[in-house]
Write a structure and sequence with these properties.
homodimer, alpha/beta, 12 helices
Amino acid sequence: MRSLPVKSLLLKSLLILLLLVNTAFAAAAADPLPSWNDTAAKKAIVTFVEDVTREGSPDFVPPAERIATFDNDGTLWSEQPNYFPEAFLYYHIKALAPQHPEWKNQQPFKAVLEDDMKTLSAGGEKAWLELDCASHAGITTEELAQSVKEWALTAKHPRTGRLYTEMAYQPMLELLDYLRANGFKTFIVSGGEIDFMRPWTEKVYGIPPEQVVGSSLKTKFELRDGKPVIVFLPEINFMDDGAGKAIGIEQYIGRRPIAAFGNSDGDLQMFQWTTAGSGARFALIVHHTDVDREWAYDRTSAVGRLDKALDEAQAKGWTVVDMKNDWKIIYVFEKQ
Amino acid sequence: MRSLPVKSLLLKSLLILLLLVNTAFAAAAADPLPSWNDTAAKKAIVTFVEDVTREGSPDFVPPAERIATFDNDGTLWSEQPNYFPEAFLYYHIKALAPQHPEWKNQQPFKAVLEDDMKTLSAGGEKAWLELDCASHAGITTEELAQSVKEWALTAKHPRTGRLYTEMAYQPMLELLDYLRANGFKTFIVSGGEIDFMRPWTEKVYGIPPEQVVGSSLKTKFELRDGKPVIVFLPEINFMDDGAGKAIGIEQYIGRRPIAAFGNSDGDLQMFQWTTAGSGARFALIVHHTDVDREWAYDRTSAVGRLDKALDEAQAKGWTVVDMKNDWKIIYVFEKQ
């Protein structure tokens, strides 16, 4: 009758082993995208990542070629009621105003200083460009970076009262992490200014400056008191929007992405360029459908218009995220 | 008397352990730069790398900021009797000639087709630019990459009879590996065309396309038979030389290097920009002093002139590699 305790001990041991194995497997299988509901969008992401990373899979892609490009405004953080780079532009102009007393009586600067959004909107892209060039001319890239860092640490969004950088989308941060954990190299390819993004993208998105592509002004190199500086010129160097995104990818990255993530017609050519490559490809559009938790807009919006790209997504079977139904939470600050 | 065998066994075990530890240490301390003689240049490199990577060192630099930039022509491979990108340009024009019968009677194309180097030299930079623009106009970035790959696999250097890519400098390949093993991210910043380098730098130098900065032509995005392509325009986009190298670094990398490697006056502003940052900085010039194994040239050379940068190196204590005395072998094909 000695066999019982031994058997019991063995069973207990096996049970403990089973529990351990189970815990280990559960940890290994922990949901990498906890803020995503289990809808088609999430399944499409996971299927694609598993297909391109599984050795022996017909869709396997070597790690060096796992390039993923992300639009910024409206894709990684909000872009309403105005693109966030616009908020920085006004901040920067106000900060420089004491050195430019003439701006008080000169449009479009006067409108910025008086928060006269009506005049600014009426001025359109021309006013923006004038403000952008004037506010950069003669300042160094280091001075601009300093101003951007101050803005990122202090400026608050008019609706949420949160730092703009806290309005990064939690589900997209999880997606960035998930891709990187699977050997992807993640890049930003944004219509926003490259020098506005680089000072904070590493901290907020885990994307280092050298993996940020964006619009830019021309610069010149000069020695100031014997010290080399790079100074902005009031002239556009590159517009990283629409067809410019495909060109920017080729120019900066030099390798075609296998996955692209965006939210507007400005991303259409990036999607086309990405998906036209051979092998498995992935395109995902963040569709702003959540009027309560974020904003709802698409075909007729002045900011982040999504019209042609939405049609092409439907025609070509690209993944469209329905923000309202696909995301459990929106912002990083909602995370428990 | 039983203690002796036990003691002997213990001693034997200790001896084996000692041998193992010794072998392990020897492996760990294996010379990472075996093709470098033990001269001042090698010591300067190793001291710098140890200083910036040792935790607790006053010069410690976090891995993310360990950016090292390398010129290509004359720094990572030879550049005589003509810059190697020039050899590709002529190859490419010859390959395209059947589609351009008019080139037979039209300079500077005629000179290329007839290997008339005298006329080409006389034409100078203007002729080069005309050839470069004409040979790119209307072709896609993928078509150019294909042509570059063919050239890299077949074209041989007139003096060594070796593939151009075999004329990469073995000591510099070791240096690239050594830096990467110490957490550095290595970039090329070359006056050569970016689209000429990217198809082979990963294989030859271990530097992926997205870490290559160079000169470029403008491009446009278009749909050809519904398929997106990026097509070259006969117009300069960016000249990555001289002050352009500092600008290119800021534009593409967005982070100041802590170490820069070059060989000519075209690298001067890259050195200035790099060394003007705070903390430990490193600048190294490859001085071509080996008339027997490679070439010897500096202040008066038309190719890779090294004059002002040599003066500044001496004044500022930058490291100058004396190729003849500092390198055991020159080329990767000399490696045993």
